[in-house]
Recover the amino acids of this structure.
């Protein structure tokens, strides 16, 4: 039993109607169930779970308690997976809740976004000119962004998507800092930790300003020599941070920057660290960096849809990235993240505008095209979480698939920004 959440590990033979299943003995994505858990409403539900799992975890604070005869006790020595869960649990120092609605936060978030954009532009220009990194104004802008995201993370995530710039380096830096703040909020980091993780997410690639521009803009696949040159950006970033003016950079930020290309299985660089030897902030930033890179068009590589990128991360769990961290990130982003273009089961097309913490597979979608893929006269906001299910429990209306950026000629920036 987990005393803090009243969570019990039980044999599936002890499942009863009214129990809330909070975890399975396997990853959620390998099952037909939603990521957030579910209430057993019928004997058929219990039977279906029994066909998939040997044991599950039930939360007695959200449903009925199990019969003690079916409670399973783990051996004294914890498994590596349980240690990983405890490590993530130790990060949770604060539970953040939305204090503003999306509509209330968006005007403030837009102002902060534009100020941060200007700060990034100034910093990048200074670095390209060989000047030292000026951290004072950048840190102020980052702190303002963190404040916005702690109030409501959806507003900034939305702006990140619809205010994209063609400059990949700029957009990647901004997007990774937004993801860092949102993911850190989900993990329960305190305010100081959120600021450090977010600043690290903004700065981990600043060393690329010291890489030959011909390599940076090359549309060809990198050869071995170019790969080795690109890998030097990690040390360049550390050098830039060490030389920064205005504010001393914390060791936690330096360690995160130094290790954001290390990988769970030891295949990363520059030190080939693996598993728990990679600092937690480095693990977080490595995952975020990879996700955002996959969803953006880079000079030498195409992009995947956000849904495809999420699934790629999932397939990389316990290989490139810690499985528990991947699963937590998917809970942050949703299977279809904010800003994703999606096609519904009735053929209509829209863009995800909000991901719900309790119904991550059923976000709110702004409908743009009808079933014939023709523009709608008026955009309609549809909360899929409020659409009633069919009598057999299946979703009456759901997302059929994620779509890549630009599908059907849709540009959210043109649609939503004047």
């Amino acid at each position: 039993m987990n005393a803090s959440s009243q969570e019990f590990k039980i044999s599936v033979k002890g499942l009863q109607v009214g129990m809330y299943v909070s975890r399975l003995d396997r990853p959620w994505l390998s099952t037909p169930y939603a990521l957030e858990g579910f209430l057993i409403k019928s004997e058929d539900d219990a039977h279906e779970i029994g066909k998939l799992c040997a044991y599950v975890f039930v939360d007695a604070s959200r449903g009925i308690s199990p019969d003690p005869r079916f409670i399973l006790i783990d051996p004294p020595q914890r498994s590596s997976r349980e240690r990983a869960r405890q490590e993530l649990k130790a990060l949770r120092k604060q539970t953040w809740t939305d204090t503003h609605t999306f509509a209330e936060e968006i005007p403030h978030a837009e102002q902060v976004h534009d100020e941060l954009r200007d700060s990034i532009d100034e910093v990048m220009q200074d670095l390209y000119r060989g000047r030292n990194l000026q951290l004072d104004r950048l840190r102020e802008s980052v702190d303002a962004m963190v404040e916005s995201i702690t109030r409501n993370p959806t507003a900034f995530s939305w702006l990140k998507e619809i205010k994209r710039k063609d400059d990949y380096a700029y957009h990647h830096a901004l997007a990774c800092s937004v993801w860092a703040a949102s993911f850190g909020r989900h993990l329960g980091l305190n305010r100081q930790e959120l600021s450090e993780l977010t600043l690290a997410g903004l700065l981990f690639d600043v060393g690329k300003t010291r890489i030959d521009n011909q390599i940076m803009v090359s549309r060809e696949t990198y050869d071995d020599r170019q790969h080795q040159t690109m890998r030097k950006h990690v040390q360049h970033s550390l050098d830039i941070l060490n030389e920064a003016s205005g504010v001393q950079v914390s060791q936690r930020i330096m360690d995160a920057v130094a290790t954001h290309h290390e990988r769970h299985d030891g295949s990363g660089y520059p030190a080939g660290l693996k598993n728990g030897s990679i600092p937690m902030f480095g693990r977080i930033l490595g995952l975020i960096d990879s996700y955002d890179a996959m969803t953006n068009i880079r000079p030498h590589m195409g992009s995947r849809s956000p849904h495809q990128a999420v699934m790629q991360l999932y397939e990389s769990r316990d290989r490139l990235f810690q499985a528990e961290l991947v699963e937590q990130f998917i809970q942050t982003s949703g299977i279809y993240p904010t800003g994703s273009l999606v096609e519904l089961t009735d053929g209509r097309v829209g863009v995800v505008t909000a991901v719900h913490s309790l119904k991550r597979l059923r976000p709110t979608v702004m409908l743009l095209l009808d079933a014939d893929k023709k523009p709608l006269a008026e955009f309609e906001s549809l909360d899929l979480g409020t659409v009633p299910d069919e009598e057999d429990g299946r979703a009456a209306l759901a997302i059929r698939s994620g779509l890549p950026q630009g599908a059907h000629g849709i540009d959210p920036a043109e649609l939503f920004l004047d």
Remarks:
- Residues 355 and 363 are 5 Å apart (CA to CA).
- The chain has three domains: 7-73, 102-333, 341-416.
- The two ends are 54 Å apart (CA to CA).
